[in-house]
Amino acid sequence: MILRKEHLFEVLSEKISKVPAYVGMIMAKKIDIKDIVQDALDGDIKQISGYDAAFLYAESPTSPMHIATLNIVEGSLKFEDFKEIVASKMHLLPKFRKRLLNVPLNLDYPYWVDDPNFDIDLHLNRIKLPDPSNWKTLRELTSTIFSSPLDLRRPLWSVHFIEGINEIAQVPKGSVAIVTKVHHVMIDGGSGVGMMGVLYDKEEDGKKKKRTKPKPFTPEPLPDELSLLLKSGYSFLKNPFKIPKTILETGYAFAKSRAQKTLSIQKEFSSATYPVPISIFNGSISAKRTWGTAILSFDRINALRKTAGGTINDVILAICAGAIRRYLQERERLPLQPLVANVPISIRTEVDGHGGNKIANMMIQLATHIADPLDRLEYIQEQTMLGKTRHKANGAKTLAKMADAVPFGLANLAAGLYSKYNIKDLHRPPFNVTITNVPGPRNLLYLNGHKVVSIFGLTPVVDGFGLIIAAFSYNGQVSITTTSDSKTMPDADLFSKYVRESANELEDLIKKAGSKKAAEVLKAKTKAKTKSTPFFTALRKYLKNTSATLKKYTGEYHMEIGKGQSTEGYDIRITASKASIRKAKNLDPKVLVEIDDDILFDLYKGTYEFEELMIQGRIKITGPVAAKNKFKKLLSTFLAR
């Protein structure tokens, strides 16, 4: 049976009129029942998601759940101009004029509604940096601003315009700093970058451009409490099987994950095989925030990535791991087991837009038990590869749906009890530290013609998880910003120094190892060629000659060729119009084919049958079933040509 809005309108009107308590309320307020039901069916009032709600009910006196950016703007930007710019862009950021409205008794997630009392002056604050107007003073002032919670009765953002920066190296005298706080229920890191593109200019001539006047704001009246209750009820009636359906989908995803881990060569790296140690970062936190930042060159990090292999994120994780190891070692609090990092992954698509949270989480062992920085990096590279495999198997979007299926009131109660009764002390933490990497604007941003010199990201911490490290790239720089609290890490600036020194140490070792490795590779090439080279030469020619049928084999495949003590990798990329084969190291292939050099050569020569080697396990192919079947078909057709 399909429940139509018209039918629901009649049913709800009839039912409400029969309830004396509701009738009394309606008569007292002189509200028409039909108006209430119509409000309940209004699709313009949007409810927050379960994932967003998690950031709302995690709020506590010691854990305000907002994120912030500190932007340093070069030159004497006038506050009046800044206010005018923000006011002119308000219509492009609709949530900045909305506030949350709770459902009575907190029976469901809150709704975004227009704030009838919105006033931009309540969100913009103008202050002067106290003397001495240097980096230390600015950091302390920013910590104080970041420590105070946002008013949950208003739109969940604020801006502090800080004037009088005179004593920061490489920043012109009289520059300003802008601290922007936005509650995490509104945005995540990725959508925050999108917002930045709205408020700032990409060209320097922004001052010369004619600024649009602020568009008038006519807020919609606040919905009645009763209509919110009905709206929540209607949402349930539309999808009464939401919770069981989500549980079934999640159960299927986990069963699939378990099967893949059983059949995969990566079974031994299952996340259940390692314990998460208890560290000083996993206790109760204080209300006062501490933070520090290290600024590194993106080109330097990228050069390390090219030499060592892996990804930019791997290098950043290794740098942070080196700093964490040193910090704990100096305090004689380094656990024997490696610390585990929660690494958020964006699952945002172009369709999702800029608002709300679209993130999943990957758990990575940071190799803090390994002294050698290069060995630590290699360990982390393996971990991220395996973490991505597990993440794909579990299905990030399925896990995100789970949050929507959890009743808001129950989740709110659980979060409060967890903090109030120190439940974190009764079990091992699921992870020790969060490390997030957000790619920011590649080129300079401007504000009314003034250059934005640097951008730093500050992130919330909660009881049991008192350390979060955020890497943010902007205009060739990567700021690695540490946020903690005065109890967990009172000397966050010292930790930032360790981050810089960890980066320098890793760079020196990678350069030395890179030179040595290049010499070894050159020597190995002169000694002996890969025996199966003719196979790849013939495959290149075959793919070139069969370009008309490439569509059947589209995909990305990686062949790892065993050569005794070493391996050699080949990436095979096929699109509908062309194909390429190149030597490459790939730590996270979509389809992985493993075979020994001698066996591949014999297969090419016809000594072995392809199916025979598959049955014997002498050739292993892992990856999605459809992609594996494509590659098997390609290989069979090629060998039978």
From TrEMBL:
Residues 49-316 form the O-acyltransferase WSD1-like N-terminal domain. Keywords: Acyltransferase, Glycerol metabolism, Lipid biosynthesis, Lipid metabolism, Transferase. Residues 356-506 form the O-acyltransferase WSD1 C-terminal domain. Its EC number is 2.3.1.20. Gene3D superfamilies: SCP2 sterol-binding domain. It is an enzyme of class 2 (transferase). Belongs to the long-chain O-acyltransferase family. It holds the Pfam family SCP2. NCBIfam families: acyl_WS_DGAT (TIGR02946). It catalyses: an acyl-CoA + a 1,2-diacyl-sn-glycerol = a triacyl-sn-glycerol + CoA. Residues 545-635 form the SCP2 domain. It comes from Jejudonia soesokkakensis. GO terms for molecular function: acyltransferase activity. It comes from the Bacteria. Transmembrane segments: none annotated. This is diacylglycerol O-acyltransferase. Pathway: Glycerolipid metabolism; triacylglycerol biosynthesis; Lipid metabolism.
